[in-house]
Amino acid sequence: MADRVFFDWNATTPLRPEARAAMLAAMDLVGNPSSVHAEGRKARRLMEDAREVIARGLGTTARRVVFTAGGTEANVLALSPGLKAPGGAVERLLVSAVEHASVLAGGRFAAGAVQTVPVGASGVVVLERLEALLASGPPALISVMAANNETGVLQPISEVAELVRQAGGLLHVDAIQAFGKIPLDIKRMGADLVTVSAHKIGGPKGVGALVIGTGLDDLVPLLRGGGQERGRRAGTENLTGIAGFGAAAGAAMAALEVDLPRVTALRERLEAGLCQTRGLTVFSSAAARLPNTTLFTAPGMKAETAVIGFDLAGIAVSSGSACSSGKVQPSHVLEAMGVGSAAAQGAVRLSLGWSTTEAEVDRVVEAWRKLSLTLLKGGNETVLERF
């Protein structure tokens, strides 16, 4: 695997050395964080230190962070009917059309209580339609992601929050793709609920967190039982995973000032190389995006064949989200943006990370140059033999 190149960081990331070290240390702790003896207190201290780091990365206090078993659970926990908004208890849910599947499913809201907010051709939420939907019914919980996992598009969260405040609703922000890649602050965003995940920033898989804004204390737990997480999520906490999460968050925050411009420059180098191919389209290129994400297509290309072709060249890429069955299928994000089916079926996502190098970018560009000679001549069905 040493000669392979990983360009699928939005699906998951390599484990940071800091996270690995923290997890190994946590494995040696015998205590349950809920126990009052010395061993339990030591485990508790480790967990609370991690909670503090994650809270600091979002500009809030540790007591507002609820650990979960991942981003999906955190999203479902956040999407709860009955939460007390300034305008009254929320009775409906508004979600943008480009949300992650765990948000589009509506959480704990009934299907009939969920409405979709459209996006424009660039993938940005249409604020006028959101405003109209907010005014068309009782108080709502609105869920808009900070950054899209496929296109990398950054949503105008502060503007969304202002509309939500004026309508007396609540705002949930899925920040799973944005946390650790761009600066975030729950108060500046104007969010009431924010979700994050460890394995998108160099932590382990299977641990996430819901961050609850000040004044929102009536969240109904998904898992009932013990009093863990201040009664908001029952079950003994995943101490090893949480330790890794905290260490990864700390490392990401410490490196953010350097990584953000460096990764942005790498993405620009990558796209400059890709765009030497005539007719190639980088989706949402005119919109504000994450520094690490490129979603592109070219005439006549089939995503499934391109992904396999890259894989045979030793390069891991994807056709979009990795959160369904693992099958290549049309993107609901591109469909919501009004992209035609032929172009959508050819969309390939390249996503970079903190350890990506110029040499790796150049290798991907060269692999694409060779692959495109076959792919774009209608030879998708035989590309695996030729590449």
Q: Estimate the helix proportion, in percent.
A: 25-40%
Helices and strands, in order, run as: EHHEHEEEHEHEHEHEEHEEHEHHEHH
Category from helices, strands and their pairing: alpha/beta
Q: How are the strands of the largest sheet arranged?
A: 2-10-9-8-7-5-6
Tertiary shape: globular
Number of strands: 14
- End-to-end Cα distance: 19 Å
Strand count, sense and closure of the main sheet? 7 strands, mixed
Question: Count the helices. How many?
Answer: 13
Which runs of at least 5 residues are low in confidence (pLDDT < 50)? Answer: 379-387
Global Rg: 21 Å
Strand content: 5-15%
Q: Mean pLDDT, nearest integer?
A: 93
Describe this structure in words.
By secondary structure, the chain is an alpha/beta fold. Helix content is 37%, strand content 13%. It has 13 helices and 14 strands. The strands form four sheets. It has a seven-stranded mixed beta sheet, sandwiched between helices. Helix 1 (17-27) packs antiparallel against helix 8, helix 5 (127-135) packs parallel to helix 6 (157-166) and helix 8 packs across helix 12 (358-375). The two termini are 19 Å apart.
List keywords for this structure.
13 helices, disordered C terminus, three-stranded antiparallel beta sheet, 387 residues, globular, 14 strands, 13% strand, alpha/beta, seven-stranded mixed beta sheet
Write a compact overview of the structure shown.
It is built from 13 helices and 14 strands.
